[in-house]
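Feature request disguised as a bug: please show the residue count (185) next to Peptide deformylase in the output. Example input:
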Amino acid sequence: MKYPVTVYGDPLLRKTAKNIDKDFEGLNEIIENMWETMYTSDGVGLAAPQIGKSIRIFIVDASSGADEEPELADFKKVFINPEIIETYGEEWIMNEGCLSLPEIREDVSRPDNVRIKYFDENFVEHEETFKGYAGRIVQHEYDHLEGKLFIDYLSPLKKRLLKGKLTNIARGKVQPHYRIKAPVK
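Example output, currently without the count:
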């Protein structure tokens, strides 16, 4: 089942998501549906708050970037109850987009490396370091679990310039190629 993507303006996107346990009801189905939703929406990552669930899960699949970064060939993972241990390295800028902010792309600066502890879909614990594009995706999706969006990294001027677009998203006046759930006003 494809979920509609929760978009800017919905208060759920600004809440800190809650940890879950391995007995969380319907977990496998939620993860399966998240994959389907992400692929249908042409995303490389999706966090549970983006499908209206305030739980600490995100998924990533950056294998499509393997042409440019061969180490991404097998970068398809589920992150449950993740905790960033540290970010470090040189800050670099990349143009980011987000399924919850359709039609908006902006340059965002993030550290090159992220060390994160998480459980996979089988509740096996991992601690890994991701760098480059993989590290950026992990940081972006993790932010969703903390109630942050990539626009929070923009200057006040840049945010003012986006105000009209953000208002249109919040009012459901955008038509991306995937289903969205606009905030109820």
